[in-house]
Amino acid sequence: MTLPQSEAGLAPGTAAAPAPVRAGLVRRLLRNPVAVGCLAVLALIALASLFAPLLTDQDPAHSSLTETLAPAGGAHPLGGDGVGRDVLARLLYGGRTSLLGALLAVSVALVIGVPSGLLAGYYRKWFDAVSSWLANILMAVPAIVVLLVVMSAVGQNTYVAMAVFGVLMSPGVFRLIRASAISVREELYVDAARVSGLTDGRIVRRHILPVVQAPTIIQAAQMLGLAIVIQSGLEFLGLGSATQASWGSMLNDAFANIYTKPVLMLWPGGALALTVAAFGLLGNALRDALDASAVSGRRARRAVRNAARARKAERARKAEEAEQAEKSVTAVKAGKAGKAVDSAPAEGIGAGPSTVPVPVPVPVPEPVPESVPEPVPESVAESVTESVAGAESPGSPEDTKSSADADGARQPKAAVASAKDDDAPLLVLDGLRVSYPAEDGEKAVVDGVSLTVRKGEVLGLVGESGSGKSQTAFAVLGLLPPEALASADRLVFDGTELGRLNRSEMNRLRGRRIAYVPQEPMSNLDPSFRIGAQLVEPVRRHLRLPASQARTKTLGLLERVGIADPERVFASYPHQISGGMAQRVLIAGAVSCDPDLLIADEPTTALDVTVQAEVLDLMRSLQRERNMGMILVTHDFGVVADICDRVTVMQTGTVVESAPARELFAAPRHPYTRMLLASTLEDAEPRSALGHATARTAAGTMHTARQEGRA
Ligand SMILES: Nc1ncnc2c1ncn2[C@@H]1O[C@H](COP(=O)(O)OP(=O)(O)OP(=O)(O)O)[C@@H](O)[C@H]1O
After folding, report:
1. Which CATH code of 1.20.1250.20, 3.30.450.20, 2.60.40.790, 1.10.3720.10 fits the domain covering 24-65+85-308?
2. Contact predicate 349/326, CB 8 Å
3. How far is the CA of 467 from the centre of ligand 1 (A)?
4. CA–CA dist 31, 26 (Å, integer)
5. Which pLDDT tens digit goes with each residue over 639-654?
6. Using one digit for the tens of pLDDT, what is the confidence trace for 388-430?
7. How far, in Å, from the CA of 464 to the mean position of ligand 1?
């Protein structure tokens, strides 16, 4: 079965009040005297052309030989042209032809270029390849030659020529829109929107169009000027309609009489120069106004990105410190006792820089016989067993059985009964394979991964960085990038084969029944929209609630996730809240439609240590009160011990071990699991002696403290 990939982005938010970055555009434009002047000139020209019959009673096409080159005055305020037609009437009516022709050309260019650019940039794949190829061909064609051919073929019809010119200009629009759409679709908040189940149409309207509208407006203003020049050029060459007044044909007539009456050049030439200059300058003013408007938006985006970067750098620093600490501890231990860590592949520890604080073993250790589990360092086994002792794991039947065997009479009956109630598998993933095109064929990043999640069960998906945890989660969500090649023997969610769902069916499922909490809260909120707007839209869409009820529900959710001032946060932009708050906001959004399955991809990694514990507590309590199934992607065994019922351990794209949390911590079977555990939950002494309070150590410590508190 081939799995669906993501072809676009999604977003948690939507139809909200536009951000202030756009609100001030008109005001800014009107504050610019050049823009006001240009608008006034263009308005004057447009009105004069529109109301030409009111401004002159002369027929622009009526020729009177007696009025040939008549001087200005009387019935002809601007005189007569070379064949005795009224110059003023031709100037006024000619404006119609020029403006309408230019508008037609630009409209055609936009109608072709905008949707195709959006589709190509948003969906990519074959449509992008084909449309880019066509655009390149069109751009290589010499426009003026094509127009000459068209006019000679279809007759002297200016509007047909302008429509063709619009087609020839459309590749420019296409490329502009496509590039903008590609850059926006890569944003995490667009992914977040998709996860929340918004349709592609809404995502495009809300997240892509606002970004492409500025360059489109500027481009349109410049194209209008260009179209008028090209059209007048054709008419000047005598290719326009003989009966239709136009500025180009006036220039043609004036040129023929340039020595006898040069002033005839002045009127059409002046009108053309004024109009083209006004469009050009207006385009510049619009660009300035949009740039200024976008500054605050860009600042907000930059602030969000900088914050994310800073957090990433901090994590990398901490990971490095942790690695150093572990190396030192390992060295000390090896020197002192030469035991425990010897069981871990020494060459793997600390191999290469890692962005997470889990040491990276390079070689895959051979599994040891299941019947003889290698002992974990005593202190580790004790501390972890203690840690998970309070967890009530529903577990899978096999897991529950083995767990019961392991724990014997200690297994509470209530827990067994509850395990039976929640026994139906919510998610079954079998034989997932994800690969990407590589120079030498394909590179598999997930290879045969299988897992099951039951209702009300928290499954921890653990492994080193790059082991394929996120790819597995994205495959379930149907959010793998378009270039991913994904297949699975089975991917069944609550009885529905996900691979068979079409795009809109998957959209309906995501956000409503399968929700997602991402790793980087800030990058998953669109900086241009208020938090409230971003939360309300999915609620309205999925639950079909009116705006006021959706707002009330959202405020209640914000309160539920521990936000002290929901009204303020509701009305805030993402850059106005902290990372911890942003994660709470995203958790509120994820549970807003009461999903059955919540996929959380390292939801605490980007957070401060103290906030991590609060967010984990919150997720656990939400999961329990809603009896949600949950996949928690993490590299942190402290987190696993805290809230997971079962654990699946991944290494280099494969599952090496899967067991109830209690069982796995008490007797890990695979050497890799033992190595991860040993490196994660060392006894605290050497670390505190070294003074490295890594997030992981702290999480483990806090977890132990909490468990002790519960005991
Ligand atoms: N678009 C892509 N093209 C090629 N390879 C990719 C792509 N996305 C991910 N990968 C590769 O897939 C592998 C698994 O990545 P994944 O993000 O699932 O790891 P992870 O276990 O979640 O790691 P982390 O904890 O660091 O997020 C990595 O080696 C990564 O480089």
Report:
1. 1.10.3720.10
2. yes
3. 7
4. 9
5. 888 889 999 999 999 9
6. 333 333 334 334 333 333 333 333 333 333 444 446 689 999 9
7. 11
